[in-house]
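Table 4 source record.
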Amino acid sequence: MFALCAVLFALVTWQVVAGGPLRHADERLGRGAFGHGPTWLTELLADLGGLPVAVPVLAVAVGFAAWRGHRARAVAVALAMVAVPVLVMPLKLWTDRAGPLTVDSGYYPSGHTATAMVTYCGAALLLSPLTGRGTGRAWPMPVAVVLSAATGIGLVLRGYHWPLDVLGSWLLCGMLLALLVAALRWIDNRGAAGTGADGR
């Protein structure tokens, strides 16, 4: 997962910076998509990646997990969220890509998309073990994937980002979430080993 996302992210970023054929196709696709769909709906979807929406959602999930005794897992997810601007902002400055409907630059990768993906998928990773046993246990992650995808779609349809801005963020956050999943497994295994050592 990490390696695949890394290779694809490098390819997409190279095309964006170099102005390759993928970027030209991206801009044609973006211009054809802008303005489609009800404005109120596409704006709502785009706002799912904004800090006023995403931060409270993640704060509730982190707080709930910590309250249920999963403090290390909660800290790991919170750190993943902190990593988003640390990763995204230098890339925005380096790629210096202009937005679809503005002369301003710094649109690749999409910060709103990254915020949404790490927020909702991070919250799902925290909540999935806490939603009980059985078939209903896995529902948070599909919801998180839908919300992450909806955010990217809204951003493109509103003309806030090119499609590759969104795709680049999905790939970047795919790497980040792969590391997060590995960290959470390590935390869980360490906790299980500690419980076994205590004989409980």
